[in-house]
Amino acid sequence: MGKRRRIGLGLYRWLDARFHITPFIDFMRHKYVPVHRHTVWYYMGGVALFLFLVQVASGILLVLYYQPNQDGAYDSVRFITTKVQFGWLVRSVHSWSANLMVFFVFVHMFSTFFTRAFRKPRELTWVTGFVLLALVLGFGFTGYLLPWNELAYFATKVGTDIMGAVPLIGEPLKVLLRGGEDVTGATLTRFYAIHIAIIPALFTMLLGLHLLFVQRQGMHEPEYVARLPKERKTMFPFFPNFLLRDTLLWLLVLNVVLYLAVFFPWELGEEADLFASAPEGIRPEWYFMFMFQTLKLLPAHVLFIEGEVLGIVGFGLMGLAWMLVPFWERAIAGDGRARWPTLIGVGGIVFILVMTIWGYLV
Amino acid sequence: MDRRSFTNFFLTGGLLGWLGSVLYPVISYLRPPHVPEADVNVVKAGLASEFPVNSGQIVKFGRKPVILIRTDTGSFRALSATCTHLDCIVQYRTDLKQIWCACHNGLYDTTGRNISGPPPRPLEQYQVNLVGDEIHVARMA
Q1: Per-residue pLDDT of chain B (141 residues; tens, 9 = 90+)
Q2: Is B74 left (phi over 0), alpha (psi -120 to 50) or beta?
């Protein structure tokens, strides 16, 4: 036995005698990853997780210089990108990895949808995943305003005003989010608190729960794999085999983020002016574009309901239905071979893609 | 009521009371206090002789933006600059001779009437008075 291995083993025994860590190691080890033609999708959640860690690290660095107030926000971001050593890189990495995180969260979500991984016993894994997606969008929405530029200022006015259209709770919710009647410096400070304290706290708790569920229940096998006899299934251990592959992929993703940050640095734009007309080309982040475009297409009134109220209530109901997929999908899919759920998913993707592209073209 | 249900009732009530006494101040804290605003009734918006025909500009009316327009005929109009659709600030389009909101392509005519796109209501009107050469924008009486 090598010297290093002896020291490692000694340390392990020392810890095990005091904290009884063997059951935890066994808990980590019990999971096996099935190998089949859809195995690649298992990596998507891990990539989103890695990008979240990049967000945490780069976000902590940004907080050291950022000033969350109306007079200082824009200038402090400009200071970070122009004066602070590697500040441009840190800010760009934060923006790029945020966007990639949203992208991979969507890929992860649709891959679990199409492989029907949300079915019993993983209903709550899906529900926690949906709430995590909502929190990721909240991260994006609040973070977008923080540089206090023109584009983000008007996007926030529009976004928070849309929330005001929610029946009954809309108006108080809008005031609560804005920290007043209008989008002002108070909104910026509030969004900062939501972005760096409230959402991260909720996100960390839910992420812990989500990962615990995955670890406890193991990886989902698509139905055709689950039906195979045991001797025809190929499996390999999650720990350390899958985790090592994950790490390699994370390294590749980090390279992509760095490449994008270096060659396509994130723009800062013009400083927000509370008394300037909205310029042309006001748009939200790309992941809100499909909703923005849909609202844009709705007429002022549909029958006796205001168009935006109809839009927001419609999206709210669709979101709720999507969160509850595991509880109604069986009812319409019957024995599990029906194509309905797949068609709904494809329809959703097509709708999102068409509206997003349309939003950018018009 | 037996002893167990009495204890359960007492503890549940205590817990709810405790939750209320914690949540009430927290929720009240989150609601932004009303900041009294100086009551603005009239603002000066520059000189009429320096305001080109067929143009518009945003004027600060307290904390609200107001759009001041000089039409083709030379008359002045002032309207709330906040789009009634989703709160963006509108602008005067010299090419269309209409008020336009860039956010969702909403159009109003120079009287503030919503004429196309998603805006559900007209823009609120303000009064324009000329005191000598000076433009005064005031709330409607």
Answers
A1: 899 999 999 999 999 999 999 999 999 999 999 888 778 889 999 999 999 999 999 999 988 999 999 999 999 999 999 999 888 999 999 999 999 998 888 999 999 999 988 888 999 999 999 999 999 999 987
A2: left
The one-letter amino acid code at A16 reads: D
Other C-beta atoms closer than 10 Å to the C-beta of A201 total 10
Please judge whether A278 and B88 are an interchain contact, meaning their C-beta atoms are less than 8 angstroms apart: yes
Report CA Rg, chain A: 23
Distance CA A154, CA A181 (A): 15
How many angstroms separate the CA atoms of B78 and A278, rounded? Answer: 18
A100 touches B at CB < 8 Å = no
Query: Distance (Å) from the C-alpha of residue A130 to the closest C-alpha of chain B?
Result: 26
CA distance to A43, A53, A90, A104, A356, per residue, from A250 (Å): 10, 11, 18, 12, 28
Angle between helices A150-164 and A123-145 (to 10 degrees): 130
Residue A239 has a CB neighbour count (10 Å cut-off) of 16
CB-based contact, B103 to chain A, within 8 Å: yes
CB A177 within 8 Å of CB A163: yes
CB B86 within 8 A of CB B104: yes
Chain A hits for B62, CB-CB cut-off 8 Å, are: none
Is the CB of B96 inside 8 Å of chain A's CB atoms? no
Q: Which of residues 51-70 of B touch A (CB under 8 A)?
A: 58, 60, 63, 65, 67
- ipTM beyond cut 0.85: no
Radius of gyration of chain B (CA): 26
B85 contacts on A by Cβ (under 8 Å): 300, 308
The residue in chain A having the minimum alpha-carbon distance to the alpha carbon of residue B36 is A180
Q: Taking Cα atoms as reference points, which of A201, A173, A178, A206 lies closest to residue A190?
A: A178
Q: Contact B88/A154, CB-based, under 8 Å? A: yes
pLDDT one-digit tens code per residue, A75-129 = 999 999 999 999 999 999 999 999 999 999 999 999 999 999 999 999 999 999 9
A186 touches chain B (CB under 8 A): yes
CA distance A93 to A258: 7
B7-23 core/surface letters (b: 16 or more CB in 10 A; e: else): eeeeeeeeeeeeeeeee
A280 has a chain B CB within 8 A of its CB: yes
Residue B117, SS3 per DSSP:
coil
Separation in Å, CA of B102 to nearest CA in chain A: 5
